[in-house]
Design brief:
single chain, about 400 residues, alpha/beta, Rossmann fold, Argininosuccinate synthetase, chain A, domain 2, five-stranded parallel beta sheet, about 20% strand, elongated
Length: about 400
Amino acid sequence: MSGIKKVVLAYSGGLDTSVIAKWLMETYQCEVVTFTADLGQGEELEPARAKAQAMGIKQIYIEDLREEFVRDFVFPMFRANAIYEGEYLLGTSIARPLIAKRLVEIANETGADAISHGATGKGNDQVRFELSAYALKPGIRVIAPWREWDLNSRDKLMAYCEAHNIPVEKKRGQKSPYSMDANLLHISYEGDHLENPGAEPEDDMWLWSVSPENAPDKATYIELGYQNGDIVSIDGQAMSPASVLAHLNKVGGANGIGRADIVENRYVGMKSRGCYETPGGTIMMKAHRAIESLTLDRELAHLKDELMPKYASLVYNGYWFSPERKALQALIDYSQQYVNGTVRLKLYKGNVAVVGRESVDSLFDMKIATFEDDAGAYNQADAGGFIKLNALRLRIAAGKGRKI
């Protein structure tokens, strides 16, 4: 890492990245550029500017990326109905490629030699940041302090802050109990007593949703309008992508929707327990599958379902900018050209129920599907030959005495 004169740091203004900023200056004797992204985490970001300035940092980037995040990352992923290991809606995973993209772009704009992040050497985020960065700029150098330094405990970080006059805001007493990550799609909780998979999360941990037991006794109904697989309106009112997700988070959280407690398999090899709140994403997943059930051809829908686990793993493991993810995305986006219409949902005490769906592109033909007289639209006698043809191989094997 010799010859590094300038580094772009993904900077939150928190304890870890504040220490990293100073550590980079001292260890590499380089200039530091900070980049702070507003992805809808719900925190005031201007304090990060003040902290960076107090450390003598001259180039400070604070950017509102909420619309780009939902439009270009979250919505394409939800067209695929992507869900990792049956439960995780990929809230952290999908944010990392956008942050990495801007880190590389800012490095190009400022003439920086390297980028840096605060992800640990045990987690997935280091992989996601760096795979994305290398895909976008093959020669970029990456500094990951957690893989280099010996400041491997909170006490050591606090001592470093005291020795270098780095101001630290103390929240929840001396120790914040959870490692948390938030954006418009979700908020995650790890660490503390959650490291024991048998321990139930404390109810006051959850920040975005009421418990289902305390949700309203009256159901909430909403109607989502779809165009090419993306939500474009709620209850008839046109909304931007970020506004859609923010609204669904609010109404979903108020009805106790979107909590998940998961033990997942990290890409680096270990199992990890995390808790997640994804109220808007949970609603989106249910509604998107509902509108697809009406508008997608059977085999195309089944093909999407077969490909989805691969797509989800690519996102989880950090391969957003890979050729295979882009190829899958092209197929998925092609499938969405007729995914138009409306879905009506009933939200009640942690549950999302589909109560109606309509589309001018519907493949549902009531004349054929009816249990009443179909006036000859479907010849039921045809089914006999269909069944016999599909049973042919089974009949041959049985006739040879083969055991089933």
